[in-house]
Amino acid sequence: MTDSPPASEPSSWLTLPEVAERLDVPISKVHQMVRDHTLLAVRRDGVQRVPAELVANRTVLKHLPGVLTLLHDAGYNDEEALRWLYEADDTLPGVPAAALGTGRATEVKRRAQALGF
Q: Where is the DNA-binding protein Rv2175c wHTH domain positioned along the sequence (predicted)?
């Protein structure tokens, strides 16, 4: 992972210990989620951080792990996946990350799947 920020950034970030507290799981579980690509973390200022809106209440957004798998299968690294999730898309509208928590999640998954072809 690199420290270079993508063009579009999430509005707020959580550190891994904050994610563990929000999800009420041990920090080791959060590290495992990042390794398994069920949660996206990138380095900012030398610290791994997670976009806050990807952790809804006490769970990770339902469709996030599937989208991350599709993006990684298409060859995206974590920074590129973050950039894709936060790239403005007028046809959604908004950014794919925001659409994951709505009825447009299926469309986001379809678009991520198309990247592999």
A: 12-54
Per-residue pLDDT tens for 3-61? 444 447 898 999 999 999 999 999 999 999 999 999 999 999 999 999 999 997 788 88
Q: Helices (H), strands (E): how many in the chain?
A: 6, 5
Secondary structure letter of residue 54 according to DSSP: G
Amino acid letter for position 77: N
How many Cα atoms sit within 13 Å of 68 on the Cβ side? Answer: 20
Enumerate residues 6+ apart whose C-beta is below 8 A from 96: 67, 84, 85, 86, 87, 89, 108, 111, 112
pTM for this entry: 0.85
Contact 39, 84 (CB under 8 A): no
